[in-house]
């Protein structure tokens, strides 16, 4: 055979192999729960793995092929595996009677000290351990599924910590030189990357849970970091940092890498964390809003893993997402999850933009260096400073990388427009690289009046959309516009808060509008917490600064606030279910700000609605003594899923009760015993029921109703008497539409409250009113 033929055959062989490999994708095959439970032996786990190999081999053709294809076997509580296979093989496998679902392995995204005081957490709370009030979260284990942990942070010091709970089964796994060492505070650290490699084979992964992005360290310390005096960010917000449950033990499950978080890795971490006996699971990540219907709940690693967690008594708290302010942008909308939106706190980082005509514009920044205040600097807009030969001047307007002309920019303050694609701090680096003296970052109409204090690499500040008119008018009307940016500052109590962050994802849930989401809101803007020292606070390669504490914003930050509160409640009430903890957090939340005004939505400037904040802003003190709770049973969730179309055989896979059957008459989705009340569509009249459980002293509760506009609401009975703790009482809410024409249709908002004079059990009411 001559060389040309050999080369041709080799080429054909390579193409054939490449095409075959390209056809394979990674999938999660879900089989329900394991019958062996918590006391499984090594033999039980091996038997489960073998069953997975045998099942897949029956479709791939051999045991060897199955073993090569499977990269995760879930053998603790979750029964299933993750494997690479062709789409047609996945579709055939989904038809097997033992298979509950088969869904693609895909990438999820992260939803990237004063906050606790602002939430009125523990009045007169000490700044150290050693008093009764400092016993916050003891014996509780809080875990994050995130980017790992920076173990050297003082927030994870074991000083003053009690012994590791005897129930703990976890460990610290690390095969690198700089190992993650655990202690009585940080009791677990594990990593998962097989799923991300199945999607992105070139992803840079390590055999370590060490955090090289900072996000996981930040969220874990927010939830349960130890007391750390004099924590600050280059002098900003100096004070004692601590998490919500500083006495709780923590564990980090690293599932997120630079490319994102694979749902196969997420499910593996859930399975491991449940085996390790974690009490609270905190996930500041998500797959994005769902528009595919109720079946998505069980084709989603977070919804699936959290359902298993709740069945085991663990509470799962998730971020609502950063796709706001549009409607139906909510993430993690399953009713068994605590879904958290993001709002502001009353700590402000003002920086003032001074114009040459003596106008002063209030702005915000966390710049680490300031301009001299004894002179004014020339202004130039990015669009007027475009680099020579730049085809798209819009890139200069946005201050994109290499878009500015150094000759035009040198020594000047550059005005850059904010956008969705280019990181705010990257714009500052572009100005700095071009020789600029400073930067003004301007919100457009989309971003409105939410300004974020960023850790800029040069003197810089951000102004609101409304204030941009003053600046642009000055630039336009002035021959040689000049100005300056004032030095950094920190102020507490001046700012009206909480207000809803414009980026926070909004309801209603497209999948189940009968369940109000988000559930609550918590601080998520300019939050100071521990950080990795492997990267800069901006994450930019050219930024050489390192800091043990940093500011981040997002529902990623609000989520661990609520995880910390859940930890406090679990420590105070170890017998409470996940639903009871969730109810206590929701029904004690507030909807007014620190000026006693209705919470505002920074996206519109108007009053916020429950689609932004759910039941309100979290109040930890009140949550510890809610009086009554809506204690949703696990079987209620299964009946809820029955109504969404799942059959009894499928749902038995979630429970040890092999006799579970879906009700002959489907449960009305509005009747899920949820702490808030949401009606998908009201044409004429609907009757909704709820059951309250007394977790406080004996008492008599009276109902108060603030009915949604054009909706008549009747509650029966109007009085509930609870002679003893643990007693349950049912009530009904009859809602009747009173609209007269289509122009009055749409979502209407109200509120219901049960009170005994001391306790106030609040529920948001959301009704989509339509004409009959």
Automatic annotation (TrEMBL):
<dbReference type="InterPro" id="IPR000209">
    <property type="entry name" value="Peptidase_S8/S53_dom"/>
</dbReference>
<dbReference type="InterPro" id="IPR041469">
    <property type="entry name" value="Subtilisin-like_FN3"/>
</dbReference>
<keyword id="KW-0645">Protease</keyword>
<feature type="domain" description="Inhibitor I9">
    <location>
        <begin position="26"/>
        <end position="111"/>
    </location>
</feature>
<dbReference type="InterPro" id="IPR023828">
    <property type="entry name" value="Peptidase_S8_Ser-AS"/>
</dbReference>
<feature type="active site" description="Charge relay system">
    <location>
        <position position="556"/>
    </location>
</feature>
<dbReference type="Pfam" id="PF17766">
    <property type="entry name" value="fn3_6"/>
</dbReference>
<keyword id="KW-0720">Serine protease</keyword>
<feature type="signal peptide">
    <location>
        <begin position="1"/>
        <end position="22"/>
    </location>
</feature>
<dbReference type="Pfam" id="PF02225">
    <property type="entry name" value="PA"/>
</dbReference>
<feature type="active site" description="Charge relay system">
    <location>
        <position position="146"/>
    </location>
</feature>
<dbReference type="InterPro" id="IPR003137">
    <property type="entry name" value="PA_domain"/>
</dbReference>
<feature type="domain" description="Peptidase S8/S53">
    <location>
        <begin position="137"/>
        <end position="616"/>
    </location>
</feature>
<feature type="active site" description="Charge relay system">
    <location>
        <position position="215"/>
    </location>
</feature>
<feature type="domain" description="Subtilisin-like protease fibronectin type-III">
    <location>
        <begin position="671"/>
        <end position="767"/>
    </location>
</feature>
<keyword id="KW-0732">Signal</keyword>
<dbReference type="Pfam" id="PF00082">
    <property type="entry name" value="Peptidase_S8"/>
</dbReference>
<dbReference type="GO" id="GO:0006508">
    <property type="term" value="P:proteolysis"/>
</dbReference>
<keyword id="KW-0378">Hydrolase</keyword>
<comment type="similarity">
    <text>Belongs to the peptidase S8 family.</text>
</comment>
<dbReference type="InterPro" id="IPR010259">
    <property type="entry name" value="S8pro/Inhibitor_I9"/>
</dbReference>
<protein>
    <submittedName>
        <fullName>Subtilisin-like protease</fullName>
    </submittedName>
</protein>
<dbReference type="InterPro" id="IPR037045">
    <property type="entry name" value="S8pro/Inhibitor_I9_sf"/>
</dbReference>
<dbReference type="InterPro" id="IPR036852">
    <property type="entry name" value="Peptidase_S8/S53_dom_sf"/>
</dbReference>
<dbReference type="InterPro" id="IPR034197">
    <property type="entry name" value="Peptidases_S8_3"/>
</dbReference>
<dbReference type="InterPro" id="IPR015500">
    <property type="entry name" value="Peptidase_S8_subtilisin-rel"/>
</dbReference>
<dbReference type="GO" id="GO:0004252">
    <property type="term" value="F:serine-type endopeptidase activity"/>
</dbReference>
<dbReference type="Pfam" id="PF05922">
    <property type="entry name" value="Inhibitor_I9"/>
</dbReference>
<feature type="domain" description="PA">
    <location>
        <begin position="390"/>
        <end position="467"/>
    </location>
</feature>
<dbReference type="InterPro" id="IPR045051">
    <property type="entry name" value="SBT"/>
</dbReference>
């Amino acid at each position: 055979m001559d060389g040309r033929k050999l080369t041709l055959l080799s080429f054909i062989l390579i193409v054939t192999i490449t095409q075959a490999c390209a056809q394979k994708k990674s999938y999660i095959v879900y089989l329900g729960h394991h019958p062996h439970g918590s006391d499984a032996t090594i033999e039980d786990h091996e038997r489960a793995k073998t069953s997975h190999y045998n099942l897949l081999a029956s479709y791939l053709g051999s045991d060897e092929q199955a073993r090569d294809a499977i990269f995760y076997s879930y053998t603790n509580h979750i029964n299933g595996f993750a494997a690479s296979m062709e789409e047609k093989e996945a579709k055939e496998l989904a038809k097997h009677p033992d298979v509950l679902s088969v869904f693609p392995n895909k990438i999820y995204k992260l939803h990237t000290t004063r906050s606790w005081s602002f939430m009125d957490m523990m009045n007169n709370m000490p700044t150290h351990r050693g008093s009764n009030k400092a016993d916050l979260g003891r014996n509780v284990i809080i875990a994050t599924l995130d980017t790992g942990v920076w173990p050297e942070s003082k927030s994870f010091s074991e000083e003053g910590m009690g012994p590791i709970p005897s129930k703990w089964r976890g460990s610290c796994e690390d095969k690198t030189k700089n190992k993650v060492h655990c202690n009585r505070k940080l009791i677990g650290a594990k990593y998962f990357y097989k799923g991300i490699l199945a999607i992105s084979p070139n992803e840079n992964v390590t055999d370590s849970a060490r955090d090289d992005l900072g996000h996981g360290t930040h969220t874990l310390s927010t939830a349960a970091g130890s007391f750390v005096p004099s924590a600050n960010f280059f002098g900003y917000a100096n004070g004692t940092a601590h998490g919500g449950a500083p006495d709780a033990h923590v564990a980090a499950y690293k599932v997120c890498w630079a490319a994102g978080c694979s749902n196969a890795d997420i499910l593996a971490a859930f399975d491991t964390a449940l085996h390790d006996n974690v009490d609270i699971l905190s996930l500041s990540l998500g797959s994005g809003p769902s528009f595919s219907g109720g079946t998505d709940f069980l084709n989603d690693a977070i919804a699936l893993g959290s359902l298993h967690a709740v069945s085991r008594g663990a509470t799962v708290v998730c971020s609502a997402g950063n796709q706001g302010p549009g409607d139906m942008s909510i993430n993690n909308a399953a009713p068994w999850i605590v879904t958290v939106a993001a709002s502001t706190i009353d700590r402000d980082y003002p920086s003032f933009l001074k114009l040459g005509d003596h106008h002063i514009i209030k702005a915000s920044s966390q710049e680490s260096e300031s301009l001299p205040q004894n002179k004014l600097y020339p202004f130039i807009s990015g669009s007027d400073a475009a680099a020579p030969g730049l085809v798209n001047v819009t890139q200069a307007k946005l201050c994109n990388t290499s878009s500015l002309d150094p000759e035009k920019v040198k020594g000047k303050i550059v005005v850059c427009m904010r956008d969705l694609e280019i990181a705010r701090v990257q714009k500052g680096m572009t100005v700095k690289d071009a020789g600029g003296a400073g930067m003004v970052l301007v919100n457009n109409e989309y971003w409105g009046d939410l300004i974020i204090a960023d850790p800029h690499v040069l003197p810089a500040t951000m102004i609101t959309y409304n204030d941009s008119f003053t600046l642009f008018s000055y630039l336009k009307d002035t021959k040689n516009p000049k100005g300056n940016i004032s030095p950094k500052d920190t102020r507490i109590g001046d700012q009206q808060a909480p207000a809803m962050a414009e980026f926070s994802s909004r309801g209603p849930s497209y999948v189940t509008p009968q369940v109000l989401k988000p559930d609550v809101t918590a601080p998520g803007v300019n939050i100071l917490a521990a950080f990795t020292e492997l990267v800069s606070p901006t994450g930019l390669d050219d930024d050489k600064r390192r800091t043990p504490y940093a500011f981040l914003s997002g529902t990623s930050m609000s989520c661990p606030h609520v995880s910390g509160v859940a930890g406090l409640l679990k420590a105070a009430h170890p017998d409470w279910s996940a639903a009871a903890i969730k109810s206590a957090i929701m029904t004690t939340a507030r909807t007014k700000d620190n000026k006693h005004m209705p919470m505002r939505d920074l996206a519109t400037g108007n009053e916020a609605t429950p689609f932004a904040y759910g039941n309100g802003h979290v109040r930890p003190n009140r949550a510890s003594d809610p009086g009554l709770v809506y204690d949703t049973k696990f079987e209620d969730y299964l009946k809820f899923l029955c109504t969404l179309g799942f059959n009894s055989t499928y749902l038995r896979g979630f429970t040890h009760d092999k006799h579970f059957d879906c009700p002959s008459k489907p449960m009305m989705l509005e009747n899920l015993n949820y702490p808030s009340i949401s009606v998908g569509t009201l044409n004429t009249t609907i009757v909704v029921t709820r059951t309250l459980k007394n977790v406080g002293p004996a008492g008599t509760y009276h109902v108060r109703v603030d009915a949604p506009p054009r909706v008549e609401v009747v509650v029966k009975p109007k009085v509930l008497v609870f002679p003893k703790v643990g007693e349950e009482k049912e009530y009904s809410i009859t809602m009747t539409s009173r609209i007269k024409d289509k122009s009055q249709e749409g979502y209407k908002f109200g509120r219901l409250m049960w009170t005994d004079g001391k306790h106030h059990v609040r529920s948001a009411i959301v009704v989509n009113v339509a004409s009959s």
